[in-house]
Specification:
By secondary structure, this protein is an alpha+beta fold. β5 and β6 form a beta hairpin. α4 packs antiparallel against α5, α4 packs parallel to α6 and α6 packs antiparallel against α7. The protein starts with a strand and ends with a helix.
Length: about 325
Amino acid sequence: MMLCYNAKAKRIEELKALRLPQEGEVCWLHFTEQTKGMLRSLLENLPIHPLAKNALLNGSDFPKVDQYEKCAFVSIYIVNEQFQKTQLRIIATERYVISYTEWERELVKKLFIYLQHHPDDLSHPGYVLYQFLNSAAMEYLELIDYIASHIQALEKQVFKTPFANEIGHLVFRWKVRLHELRQIAEAQEEMMKTIGHSDFPYVNEESNPYIQDAIARFSRVTAALDTFRETLTGIFDLQLSLKSDHMNVIMKTLTLVSVVFLPMTFIAGLYGMNFEKMPELKWEYGYAYALLLMAGLGGVIALYFKKKGWWGERSKQQK
């Protein structure tokens, strides 16, 4: 993909053959892995710093911007909903912008079509940089919406199935993803702020407000990622709290049952002693008396617990 803007004619032309811009022209040249050979041949004839050439061909580990004598190298990372990272590498000079991605990206195709219909946006390298930064920011914001919907679903799942171990696993996986994404987003935000500085040579006064707008839009990304991490921690703590409450209810029920049967156990143990002079043992109604006594004591204790709200419907309303 190659476009060239002619300042005198104020029109844009799609280049069929590779060439550098002439006087009064600004060109955008995009390459992929398939056209990397052409890119190498072009770089050999360009008077730019060898480190910039190497960075364009080999990339960088994180988003960054490096300024050289006659150019600037910009590395932008784009992350899709599958958390697959794509690196967009750019060299910007006063008269041309060279970009590179390993594969054809929909973002680049959209920009190519947009510039064909808006030639003035190719009149300065700063406008092209803005289009790249703005497109990357929009991609990240779409990813933020995607993450927000999944975290919201995870919150609802905690209340539906609070004892599912899968929730804890999902929280951990999301936190790992967000940590990696946060590192990239933070570096990209710093890179964008560097481009937005007034002393950056390849952004003019007209394009700088647009760059600032893209920076402001992207700042929402890092803030949202921090909020998501706190939310995930809250979800995990909430599940632990629900599990703890459930365990407390179980222990409370077992304790109440034990207290109900405690006097019964005492009476059974009392009449189980092997003393000869125990009048109730030879009484005709002694067995029925013992059963009624145990049942009565247990019922009285159970009614007392129910009246206090420790057992039954009142207890359910309090939970």
